[in-house]
Prior knowledge:
The complex is a heterodimer of chains A (275) and B (225).
Chain A: H1 3-7, H2 10-36, H3 39-59, H4 63-85, H5 89-110, H6 115-119, H7 131-150, H8 152-160, H9 162-167, H10 172-194, H11 199-202, H12 205-213, H13 217-242, H14 246-263, H15 265-274
Chain B: E1 5-14, E2 17-27, E3 32-36, H1 43-50, E4 58-63, E5 66-67, H2 74-78, E6 81-84, H3 97-102, H4 106-109, H5 117-130, H6 145-158, E7 163-167, H7 175-191, E8 195-200, H8 203-207, E9 212-217, E10 220-223
Parallel strand pairs in B: 3-8, 3-9, 6-7, 7-8
Antiparallel strand pairs in B: 1-2, 1-4, 4-5, 9-10
Amino acid sequence: xxxxxxxxxxxxxxxxxxxxxxxxxxxxxxxxxxxxxxxxxxxxxxxxxxxxxxxxxxxxxxxxxxxxxxxxxxxxxxxxxxxxxxxxxxxxxxxxxxxxxxxxxxxxxxxxxxxxxxxxxxxxxxxxxxxxxxxxxxxxxxxxxxxxxxxxxxxxxxxxxxxxxxxxxxxxxxxxxxxxxxxxxxxxxxxxxxxxxxxxxxxxxxxxxxxxxxxxxxxxxxxxxxxxxxxxxxxxxxxxxxxxxxxxxxxxxxxxxxxxxxxxxxxxxxxxxxx
Amino acid sequence: xxxxxxxxxxxxxxxxxxxxxxxxxxxxxxxxxxxxxxxxxxxxxxxxxxxxxxxxxxxxxxxxxxxxxxxxxxxxxxxxxxxxxxxxxxxxxxxxxxxxxxxxxxxxxxxxxxxxxxxxxxxxxxxxxxxxxxxxxxxxxxxxxxxxxxxxxxxxxxxxxxxxxxxxxxxxxxxxxxxxxxxxxxxxxxxxxxxxxxxxxxxxxxxxxxxxxxxxxxxxxxxxx
Lengths: 275, 225
């Protein structure tokens, strides 16, 4: 299909709008993940979504919706639960990761569910978004941007050092819980957009590239948004131009940006420094 | 005289074992109090009790004449207690020195609000006093250990608190830097009329600066000087 023809297709337009918003906003969450080392939590969210999908299928309801609801509930509960149990968030995430997987498989077995149908939640398709998916992606993106904009200084202190944030008199725990909550919601919505296995393309990879050259948190947020936007839009057009899966194309773009940052790290840092 | 900090018969358990067994410590306004003890004696635990990040099993904690343990909003009181940790955790985090010092103002600025010109002026004053103003635009991670510790001191100063808590601020420094940091702390203490509580595992080292030294051993503090 030619590029101009593709631009007129509604599914492509939906995908383009989704990556314009998600490409800008979701990498901001990647900055949280890197700074607070929340990678295990991200993995746990994927498995929790799978359990949600299994419950949905077991009950004969929308598995995607249940995946989202389970992620929202888990991201609300995990922060306070880790404090109560005095287990670190990483350990608790590992625990939930295996427990939810076990429960999901029990449901698959008992409910005689087609496993492939349940695992569909793990690989979304950005070219198959309906109106509500799009609304969800835009709403989540605006929420993330609003949180980062309004609470920038509080987030900066918590990401830098939670002990310092607490000692200067900030409500450090509430900010941290908010970060965990936004992360859970973002991972869940990303799964719908590009699939759980490829969440990193929109969330983590742009932030990794930004971290290499940023000289301040503000720069890290702005650069990760820029890189997310370039990889999202670029990947989408590349997938249309050469007919490859869009999620893979987005990852290729994000990886290319990381490679450029690695190769030209020193020069890029001096540019950013002078900017 | 009323005390700025008063701990009375404090008992604290950490992970099931009793670390502090009836500790009583007091610091008058503008007094420099040192608490000395071996590693693992519970010095950091004691500081956490004073700034309200750890609640004791029993006893009474009074800070600036207010009952910290039953305070309706400990965050408000914590804004009056500046804390300097041994070391910050996040070395690769992209944070400029000026931003790190301004962070001391965040609690007082209030949620969502942006720092004002006055907040920035106070951060600049603090950097000037500890001698790091020329590094304001450098990344904290680009500084030496001693300079990073000065950033923590400047942040504490910028906070504008009347109580300064120091958790072994010279532990990871070489001898010249240690002396420089202690002189800076001493100058801060006098210039800003702070009530300073510092913990250290070297009693000889802190004696020359402190008005009063407590020795913390076997979970109990006794006055050494």
